[in-house]
Specification:
The structure holds two protein chains of two kinds. Chain A is an all-alpha fold. Chain A is 75% helix and 0% strand. By secondary structure, chain B is mainly α. Chain B contains twelve helices and no strands. The chains are: A mainly alpha, B mainly alpha. At the A-B interface, helix 1, helix 6, helix 7, helix 12 and helix 13 of A face helix 6, helix 7, helix 10, helix 11 and helix 12 of B.
């Protein structure tokens, strides 16, 4: 079904057309997106002011002279009133200026541009695994509720909710890397390939699988695959737990509807009833579920990255934290938050496109 | 029990007490048929008993070091879960760790819903600017990456028990606020609220007597479903070294203790992780059951 607006144009009674309503709703959504983003900035700004790390000492070190301190305090605008500082902060962020890293003196946004693709790659692979396994598993449970099959699907899902990521990652490394040797260990590549990376592969997307494939370095590609598969499977399992649980409950709800009974009475094969008729309606709320778990994975990748030494945004933030590089930490937090808000809004749009009732 | 059964199942109860007891008995019968919920109840009860009687059950002190006994593997006589690199008994540490876990859960469950309840009720009931401002604050908090903020806050404040509770509470109230506001909005439309207003009840009276009781089921469900994630968040913070400070036997701390020795002393990290998983699983199964009983509409939570 193409998302074409087939509703008649506004009639004599003055009803606004569906297109107009859709546009005004979208504007509303955009406005609340904007306000939420300002709120996010307010929270990070607040955090940066309450923490006991003095930005001036962090930059100059302990042995700075009084003059240097005064000059830098003036330059950073720390003498201005708080609301003015916040205004400047918001202005800078909207102009793509997240400040400078204390550690490297580089603009934070360009640093994040190098780290973020690795996180994106990992969580995208994770959500793909989660969707491919999670939706069929949920359907399997919903078509025979109360059976052993259903119990197993629910239990596996509940376990995904219940195990801490960091522990699962450690145990996965111990078993599949340490004992069985099936997968590559921490990092994106074996150290041998890591040394060759800069020589042989030009970073186009900063995603290791895509870059090595583009460069035609298939040895390196498969090595990268063996490294990414374990953390991606782990994230996939976490999202699969949520996706299968929601699919199960949506599907059970849908299978109780009358049009399903009608389809069955007509003698339609059960597989078609479930996968074509019911699935079409289950897919709509699932958009939100998948988007939410994708956003959640981007955030959850922080922990996975520390366990698997994955050079993504999570590692960037935790490394920055260790050396008290607060601008970098807050910049990273803002980016993760902004992506999270963005994905939520996108799922909102898609939902309204897919479900005529929501328009 | 058998002698009481006919009295409990009497379709024409003679007294209020009998009717109530009968209903409770019926829901217990339904509960017993649900294997997941029964397992959940069993594990949670065992855990609560374990944490209460930890000093009696634990064979060793959880913190005192005993260097001759270091890195004993599991199934060593006297140390069936093995020992860590300071010779501390893993089993005893896990037993005492359950106290920390349950204590944190208790504090979080007692604080976050209260804040969420107040903010959500004010936003939902009074509407207008109150609602706009408060709900934007809620949205902003929900958009903040929880684990990250927890790490930043906890690391700048230094690891301590109080900070873990504050951080988790700070991150959990918005979900209650959003749920409560939604429900207050629909309750507000009910005829009995309008009638109460016409009868001249003050807002405080309407909220206290007519709105709040209707919010209890969903608060209970939300709280029970959040117990698990609160336990995981606490363990995560402790694992990262920004939660409970190290000599304490919090489960996340024990996993971190064993991290560097994973290759040759896997048992240090394995057992506390299993303890976390089972505990969270048990609470989740109970929460699922509670939700299905009290309000199946909350499936989306």
């Amino acid at each position: 079904m193409a998302p074409v607006n087939t509703a008649p144009p506004s009639d004599a009674a003055g009803q606004p057309s569906a297109a107009l309503r859709f546009a005004s709703q979208s504007l509303n959504t955009l406005f609340s997106l904007f306000i939420t983003f300002i709120g996010l900035l307010a929270v990070t700004f607040f955090i940066s002011r309450v923490i006991p790390i003095d930005p001036v000492t962090a930059i100059l070190g302990e042995r700075a002279t009084g003059e240097q301190i005064a000059a830098l305090t003036q330059k950073l605008g720390l003498n201005d009133p708080l609301w003015q500082q916040f205004g400047i902060y918001v202005w800078d962020v909207f102009h793509g200026d997240l400040g400078q890293s204390v550690r490297t003196r580089d603009p934070i946004l360009s640093e994040i541009g190098r780290y973020f693709p690795a996180t994106l790659e990992l969580s995208t692979l994770g959500i793909l695994i989660g969707v491919i396994v999670g939706i069929p598993a949920g359907v399997l449970g919903a078509t025979k509720p109360g059976s052993w099959r259903d119990l197993i699907v629910r239990l596996v899902g509940l376990m995904g909710y219940s195990m801490p990521v960091f522990w699962l990652g450690l145990m996965g490394l111990l078993l599949f890397y340490g004992e069985l040797g099936w997968v590559g260990g921490p990092g994106r590549l074996d150290s041998m390939y890591e040394m060759m990376l800069d020589m042989k592969v030009t970073p186009v997307t900063h995603m290791i699988l895509i870059d090595t494939a583009l460069a035609g370095e298939w040895d390196m590609f498969w090595n990268a695959m063996s490294h990414i598969i374990l953390p991606a499977a782990l994230l996939g399992y976490l999202s699969m737990a949520y996706i299968s649980r929601m699919t199960r409950s949506f599907m059970m709800n849908e299978l109780g509807q009358e049009y399903i009974t009608t389809a069955r009475v007509k003698g339609m094969p059960e597989r078609r009833v479930v996968w074509v008729h019911a699935m079409r309606n289950v897919a709509v709320p699932l958009i939100t579920v998948v988007a939410l778990s994708y956003a959640y994975l981007l955030e959850g990748a922080v922990l996975t990255e520390t366990i698997f030494a994955w050079p993504g945004l999570g590692r960037y933030i935790t490394d920055a934290l260790l050396v008290a590089d607060m601008p970098a930490v807050l910049g990273g937090t803002i980016v993760v938050g902004a992506v999270y808000i963005g994905i939520n809004m996108l799922s909102d749009f898609l939902y309204r496109l897919a479900d005529p009732r929501a328009r | 029990m058998t002698a009481l059964t006919p009295w409990l199942l009497d379709p024409n109860p003679k007294s209020r007490l009998q009717s109530r007891a009968g209903q409770t008995f019926l829901s217990w019968l339904r509960f017993r048929r649900n294997p997941l919920a029964m397992i959940g109840l069993g594990i949670s009860l065992a855990l609560i008993l374990m944490s209460i009687f930890a000093p009696l059950l634990a064979p060793y002190d959880p913190i005192v070091q005993s260097l001759p006994d270091r890195l004993l593997p599991p199934l060593t006589p006297g140390h069936w879960m093995g020992t860590d690199d300071f010779g501390r008994d893993i089993y005893s540490r896990i037993l005492y760790g359950s106290r920390i876990t349950l204590y944190i859960v208790l504090l979080v469950i007692l604080t976050a819903p209260v804040v969420g309840l107040i903010i959500g009720t004010v936003a939902g009931y009074f509407g207008g600017w109150w609602e706009v401002v408060l709900m934007r604050v809620v949205d902003a908090f929900l958009a903040v990456p929880a684990v990250l903020v927890a790490i930043v806050l906890a690391s700048t404040q230094g690891p301590s028990f109080e900070n873990v509770v504050i951080v988790i509470g700070l991150l959990y109230w918005p979900r209650y606020a959003r749920q409560v506001r939604g429900e207050v909005l629909s309750i507000k439309q009910a005829d009995y609220i309008k009638l109460a207003r016409i009868a001249g009840c003050s807002p405080a009276r309407i909220i206290g007597l007519h709105v709040l009781p209707n919010l209890v089921p969903s608060l209970l469900v939300l709280a029970s479903l959040q117990v698990g994630s609160a336990i995981i968040l606490e363990a995560t913070l402790s694992f990262l070294g920004v939660g409970i400070p190290p000599p304490q036997p919090a489960w996340g701390v024990i996993v971190e203790d064993g991290r560097a020795m994973l290759a040759f002393a896997w048992w240090i990290s394995l057992f506390p992780g299993i303890a976390i998983a089972f505990t969270v699983l048990a609470f989740n199964m109970l929460g699922d059951w509670l939700r299905d009983q009290l309000d199946p509409r909350l499936r989306g939570l």
